[in-house]
């Protein structure tokens, strides 16, 4: 069972509905006991970095989540801002990130000024590492909405890249910790397959 973490941020219901469509059991929760019993976690997120990280760290379940992920090695998937929160820091704010993956989040600085920021819409992704989360996806197209992107300090943490005026990292991982910059819950059959894959990890 996947616990969709409710800390006041993210498209919780749409993520739940996508899991339901692909036959993966999930629950939207902030309950500590439910989080302990869960097999995996989904960390959603929209909005600003500082608001997101403060909301998460102030959640009553945060210490429990940290123990389950870092000590008990339960898988977690961060989506959009949820992925950025996994990093050390962001140019968008002053607060420290979780630091679960050695990376930083920076704002797009594109030479091609005809490209608008935020990067919004469908884009193809190129997995750079063999990983089950991208299995059975012949056409890796997903829906993006973001103005910031992640820079990994260790290339082995890069799971996929995309191109928007420049090559950027759009998926990261380390051991049991995964992040995707795009929105699987808005990505139709492609997002459904990715969430199904996460459910099967």
Automatic annotation (TrEMBL):
GO CC, one annotated term: cytoplasm
**Alphabetized GO MF terms:** glutaminase activity; imidazoleglycerol-phosphate synthase activity; lyase activity
Annotated pathway? Amino-acid biosynthesis; L-histidine biosynthesis; L-histidine from 5-phospho-alpha-D-ribose 1-diphosphate: step 5/9
Q: What is its EC number?
A: 4.3.2.10, 3.5.1.2
Q: Where is the active site?
A: 80, 183, 185
Subcellular localization, per the record?
Answer: Cytoplasm
Q: What is this protein called?
A: Imidazole glycerol phosphate synthase subunit HisH
Q: Which organism is it from?
A: Halarcobacter bivalviorum
Gene name, Swiss-Prot/TrEMBL: hisH
């Amino acid at each position: 069972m996947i616990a969709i973490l409710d800390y006041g941020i993210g498209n919780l219901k749409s993520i739940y509905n996508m899991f339901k469509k692909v036959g993966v059991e999930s629950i939207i929760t902030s309950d500590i006991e439910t989080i302990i019993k869960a097999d995996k976690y989904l960390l959603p997120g929209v909005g600003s970095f500082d608001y997101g990280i403060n909301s998460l760290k102030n959640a009553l379940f945060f210490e429990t989540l940290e123990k389950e992920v870092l000590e008990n090695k339960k898988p977690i998937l961060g989506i959009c801002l949820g992925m950025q929160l996994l990093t050390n820091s962001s140019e968008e704010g002053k607060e420290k990130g979780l630091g679960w993956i050695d990376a930083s989040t920076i704002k797009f600085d594109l030479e091609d000024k005809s490209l608008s920021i935020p990067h919004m819409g469908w884009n193809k992704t190129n997995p750079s590492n063999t990983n089950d989360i991208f299995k059975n996806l012949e056409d890796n197209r997903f829906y993006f909405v973001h103005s910031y992107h992640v820079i990994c300090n260790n290339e082995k943490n890069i799971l996929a890249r995309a191109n928007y005026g420049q090559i950027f990292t759009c998926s990261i991982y380390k051991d049991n910790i995964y992040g995707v910059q795009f929105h699987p819950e808005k990505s139709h059959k492609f997002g459904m397959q990715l969430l199904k894959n996460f459910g099967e990890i």
